[in-house]
């Protein structure tokens, strides 16, 4: 296709649904892949619970939220990033990129499934840590908590889509994620409020939508929570705004990456 | 095999694997990979648990946690990478060729462990430097030799443990679950974040089966007391764990190889 020419002959809805369906089928064929992304969060949740033991009744919520978020990060972000890496390994990246369907819809279908499986993983981690702790966390408003929990997942998915766009260019997606895993956990404050981090690092943390969403979730779930000074409402607004920005960036990056790849024939130095 | 048809020498097989494996089956393809593992992972993992301590109000625990996590990061290069070598051989289609080659197996597997041992040493060393610089850990200069000896022994033992897991993974469809379990289970069972004595007895027993538990105990003992009779016992324990791991790894590989050669089948990726 000529670079810049308008694409025809595809349906965004059908492409997304097809990618979603394929992701579901692949997961059903080998659901054990949910396990690796849950091992670390379960262990981290239990270790954190042990470290928090005796610190107060709401610290169980910190441990569970942190572990749940780590699991969702594993499934959502890793899943999205790995998908591009696997396309590269299997030799399907080039045909997928040159197909009439824009790659963003293929990734979108995968991300949608990763959101669902991420939620499933998060719930399993939640169950394991609660079983270890012996009692569920005290949450003032369970319904709002559940809605915000899903919202946190969507903010993670937004980060996942941006990462997936950049991963088209590199064969080292898995490595980057492994190296950056703890940095992301620390930077977004998945187990603790980012106010505990040095002040100079806060602006970098606020570049990520999950930082805002998690802070909002903790404001709702933990009475007396000492998070970011502007409080729940602004956290929520910040999360929505940064998520929207991420999605816009992802769309632009995907468009540009595809054009560049088609112009230069360069996907990565494999 | 060499040109005249004789078996490649032990040293040649050892060295070839030591040089090639990091770029192929071990996955250390570029120097920035290694630098990331050595310099970034320990700092971020230590910071994570130090901040968890801080949130829980246990600021007096931070140095303990930092040292534990500095040592625990050894698992990335020694256990996770080494364990996955089997997966990569299967994925790249080289496992069958490896199994029918006449190369000395001890040289082959131990050779693969050389670079991971060096990277493990570097990772723990950098982690301990971070612990002293940023997390308030005190490592007396007089105890540095004892600490270095403990770290070296631990690196050997952990790579042996990684090879053992790789042997188990030979007969699994994938080693990724096994690798992930042993990458992180030490954080819970090996006294990394809290003393092993805080665990229920069955979990303490499980922890004692992991070389990291003994290695970490030796490093903590070396830091606090230098060379003491207790440290000698811990060194002996780490050495025994290393010997058992390497021997069991070679034994397992032999068993599974025989089985693969006898049946013509092996679990494929």
Question: Could you give a quick summary of the protein structure above?
Answer:
With 270 residues, chain A is an all-alpha fold.
Description of the structure:
The complex is a heterodimer of chains A (270) and B (269). Chain A is an all-alpha fold and 270 residues long. Chain A has helices at 12-29, 36-52, 59-90, 93-98, 103-133, 142-167, 173-187, 202-205, 209-221, 231-264. In chain A, helix 1 (12-29) packs across helix 5 (103-133), helix 6 (142-167) packs antiparallel against helix 9 and helix 6 packs parallel to helix 10 (231-264). In chain A, 47% of the residues are buried. Chain B is 74% helix and 0% strand. With 269 residues, chain B is mainly α. Chain B has helices at residues 10-20, 31-55, 62-72, 74-83, 85-92, 95-100, 105-134, 144-169, 176-189, 201-208, 211-225, 229-263. Chain B is elongated, with a radius of gyration of 19 Å. Chains A and B meet through helix 2 and helix 7 of A and helix 2 and helix 9 of B.
